[in-house]
Amino acid sequence: MEAELRELGRELDVPPAASLTAAVRQRLEAPAARRRRMAPWGTGAAARWRPAWRAALVVLAVLAALLVATPQGRAVVTHVLRFAGIELQQEPGPAPSPRSSAALPGERRMSLAEARQHVSFPILVPAALGRPGEVVVSDGGRVASLIYRRTPYGQVRVDEFAGHLDPVLFQKFVHLADVTQVKVNGRRGLWIKGPHELLYITRDGTPAAASARLTTGNTLIWGTRQVALRLEGNLTRTAALAIASSAR
Amino acid sequence: MRRAIDDAEAVARSRDGDLDAYAVLVARYTLRAHRAAFLLGAGEESDDVVQEAFVKAFRHLSRFRAGEPFAPWLLRIVANETRNLARSRRRRAALALRVSAAEPGGAAADGPADEVLAAERRTHLLAAVNTLPDRERQVLVCRYFLDLSEAETAQVLEWPLGSVKSRTFRALNRLRGRLVAGQQNGASRG
């Protein structure tokens, strides 16, 4: 019985842990910082929230932090991080399509209203960007993409999907040092600095080779209860967070 | 590249306020602490619980006895934070544990008969663990899922050693009883 329990323990589903080194450090450094800020910011809600916000901007530590000498540690390294239907891996990705024609499977252009009939999740539109120039539904309604050709930040793309239901829809090949944990409307999000290779994973778990591409600018990933979103473009983190929190 | 430092040195330097040294401990023990928090019932809030535990641990380092192992000392704080969380959300801390879907045993329905039987037994065992009273479940989590010794379990759960022994004994007996009952039901159905 005891041996069986030990074996069972090895098979239990435990979600991956977030790296906490930076967050803990920020919390431990915070008291001194808060005292310094008290005078100009007063004692109101703003003074209490600013450190909390800072603490939320958590840097995911580099891979070294994950190389803990445990079997779980090694498991974390192979599929580095799963978040809202997106798997982040720290390794070289497949060669991106040399043409700029990388596409998701079965892309169909349609109006926003039509798109809402074709997908099973609510499509959110960031009020900060307004109505999208183009709406594309891919892979039989698994992904909806809003494309804004001309914004103050150049072309901006928002992909939306039921990230909390589907196992993995996208794989990203990143340096963990470029990934930062952020908060969007109180929920966890990830900010990925710089271009990285992106690959779409179909329903049966196989990568769609024609979807491989290098992303442009920076990317923000976040989710709500019903939908996961990835925002991509030449955005600063502040702009991306403002756009994300305006999604309705 | 920085030289690796051992726990004792990292603790000693952290105690003097060296946050770099403490970052080494945080990185080294995050996964273990997270697994403990999750399995003891913190669920989705495990990352928050662990973060809180690391902050408190740093502030209480003066109570850490030199030479003592760091892991059980930290896990006691993690277990305590998990209990606080359960109290604050006013519901049972317990969260149904599941077998990872990626495990070969989990999806052996069309495998060889003995694998199917083993998977079935594991499913029954897990179901039985999930219905144990909180304390008995906690003691099994510590002893068998977190691989802690009886003494470490006593430290982590803040129980006397005798309670760890008696609750483990009762929990194992209850599991055996439920498994036998489950098999008899299965046999009478089949």
What does it look like?
- The complex is a heterodimer of chains A (248) and B (190).
- In chain A, 29% of the residues lie in helices and 28% in strands.
- Chain A has 248 residues and is of the alpha+beta class.
- Chain A has 2 domains: 13-56, no CATH class; 66-245, no CATH class.
- Chain A has a 9-stranded antiparallel beta sheet.
- In chain A, helix 2 (21-41) packs antiparallel against helix 3.
- Chain B has 8 helices and no strands.
- With 190 residues, chain B is mainly alpha-helical.
- Chain B has helices at 7-15, 19-42, 46-59, 70-88, 113-130, 134-145, 150-157, 161-189.
- The longest helix of chain B is centred in the C-terminal third of the chain and has 29 residues, at 161-189.
- Chain B folds into 2 domains: 7-88, Rna Polymerase Sigma Factor, Chain: A (Orthogonal Bundle), CATH 1.10.1740; 104-189, Winged helix-like DNA-binding domain superfamily/Winged helix DNA-binding domain (Arc Repressor Mutant, subunit A, Orthogonal Bundle).
- Chain B is 70% helix and 0% strand.
- Residues 102-109 of chain B have low confidence and may be disordered.
- The chains are: A alpha+beta (248), B mainly alpha (190).
Overview features:
heterodimer; A: 248 residues; alpha+beta; 2 domains; 9-stranded antiparallel sheet; 5-stranded mixed sheet; 7 helices; globular; B: 190 residues; mainly alpha; Rna Polymerase Sigma Factor, Chain: A; Arc Repressor Mutant, subunit A; 8 helices; 0% strand; elongated
End-to-end C-alpha gap of chain A = 52 Å
Oligomerization category of the chains in this entry? heterodimer
Give the low-confidence spans of chain A. Answer: 33-80
Percentage of residues in DSSP E strands of chain A: 25-35%
The ordered H/E elements of chain A are: HHHEHHEEEHEEEEEEEEEEH
Rg of chain B computed from alpha carbons, rounded to a whole number of angstroms: 19 Å
Number of strands of chain A: 14
